Amino acid sequence: MAGKKQFDTDAALDAAMIQFWRAGYADTSLDDLSRATGLNRSSIYSSLGDKDTLFLRCLDRYAARYGDKYDAALSRVDSDPVAAVRAFFDVTLDRIADPALPDGCLIAQSAMAIPALSPRVAAHAKQALGRQRLRLRAALKTSGLTDRDAEAFAVHAAAVNQSLAVMSRAGTSPAQLRAIVGVTVDALSQTLRASA
């Protein structure tokens, strides 16, 4: 008895995520997604959704995967805020250094493409970008920083984190990226010492 062709939804979503990450939303066609996932167009539509829906699923998948890693890095902020923020940046630097993954960051890439995205997708990309600042702010607030300083460092660290992804895509060396992180971590360390 013949049934529906089965496929691994997680593998298909990962393949679509990598395709969007590599080429961006606008430059990824349904044919690209079909090649990446091994599914025909009708299977993509029926199982994964239209292009916008699939992209949002991939963006959420990416944000959750790396969000969990950022949360784990920041979980020790109470005992050592400087080490926690450095570990936060290490999540990004490790992702950038992984040869199995595309350069850059799907969220940063999506944020840069907001003018070309549909309102629904653009709003989702903005929300994903904003979660990083909120995550950092909440962690830094527990480290003893004032509300103002926690917000300022959260905005700064989120901006630096996104710039690491953009700069890596442009060919900046790992040593230069680590030096950029060092400046931010040193500034945080000085601020924490001054506020103690």
Automatic annotation (TrEMBL):
Residues 6-66 form the HTH tetR-type domain. Gene3D superfamilies: Homeodomain-like (1.10.10.60), Tetracycline Repressor, domain 2 (1.10.357.10). InterPro entries: Homeodomain-like_sf, HTH_TetR, Tet_transcr_reg_TetR-rel_C_sf, TetR_C. Residues 29-48 bind DNA. One of its GO terms (molecular function) is DNA binding. PANTHER family: HTH-TYPE TRANSCRIPTIONAL REGULATOR YJDC, TRANSCRIPTIONAL REGULATORY PROTEIN. This is TetR family transcriptional regulator. It comes from Amycolatopsis thermoflava.
